[in-house]
Amino acid sequence: MEEEKLTSIKSENESYKPGAGYGMQIGYALLLDFFLPVQTALMFAGIISASGEDEISSFLLNLADLAGKLYVCIVIVFSIVNIVRSFKAYRENSPSYCVNSMLILKYGLIPFFIQAFTVTVLFILIFTLGGFVASRGTIIFMLIALWPLALAWGVAVGLILTGLTIIILLPGAFYGIQVVRYTLKEKKTSSGFAVMHGILQFVPFFDNLDAMYLDIKKWKLGKNSSTVVAAAYILLLLSIIACIVLLVIALSKV
User: Fold this and answer.
1) How far apart are CA 202 and CA 209, in angstroms?
2) Cα–Cα distance, 176 to 103 (Å, whole number)
3) CA angle 138, 148, 125 (to 5 degrees)
4) C-alpha span between 228 and 237 (Å, rounded)
5) Is the pTM for the entire model greater than 0.85?
6) What confidence tens digit (pLDDT) does each residue in 68-108 have?
7) How far apart are CA 254 and CA 252, in angstroms?
8) CA torsion sign, 78 to 83 to 88 to 94?
9) Where are the domains of the chain?
10) pLDDT digit string, tens, across residues 109-143
11) Span 230-253, average pLDDT
């Protein structure tokens, strides 16, 4: 009887063997990592096509627009499939598959968020510095006069970007939820900490730290990758602290 049970579990988990069942997770991460470059290329292709007035230019413009929308649709499909598969993996009793999938989707999206952060910062700098130069500095007085509107606009943009970030994190977050459920099921954590881990899976930046903790402390399946990411986070934190210290020193000498 015990042998039949082990055979049944092995059979159920065959579709989740490492290297065979991670295509959707890797695909989703790669689609997001190349999202900004592809969309930028399609945008420029559309701008170039729009400069012409013949039928070929019109066709290319529509093709670029269609390709951009199709790319977004594919990303959405991959996201939904990954979320559904996370629940299936839990039912199939495959904790290692859920942990590995969580790590792929968490760590695999780091390049995308670096790109998105860089583009956002550049956009803000270009917008503010461009406005400052174009208005010859008078934009500062306008912002002071209209500070409630400027604050509301900033909050709205922040909320929109946060919402989009959480949506992008959903596939990895749901695999993280399954890992938390397994961790609680195996009595490796308490109910209170399980709730905390579940919430952190949906919090940008901290979701990676929590996934790192769950992997290194609870499951020990991807220690090498988690160690590398942890080192990168520590270097990032030290860099931020160093920049703040240098800024304070520079301001103190002004």
Assistant:
1) 12
2) 9
3) 50
4) 14
5) no
6) 889 999 999 999 999 999 999 999 888 889 999 999 999 88
7) 6
8) positive
9) 13-221
10) 988 888 888 888 888 777 777 766 666 666 666 76
11) 73
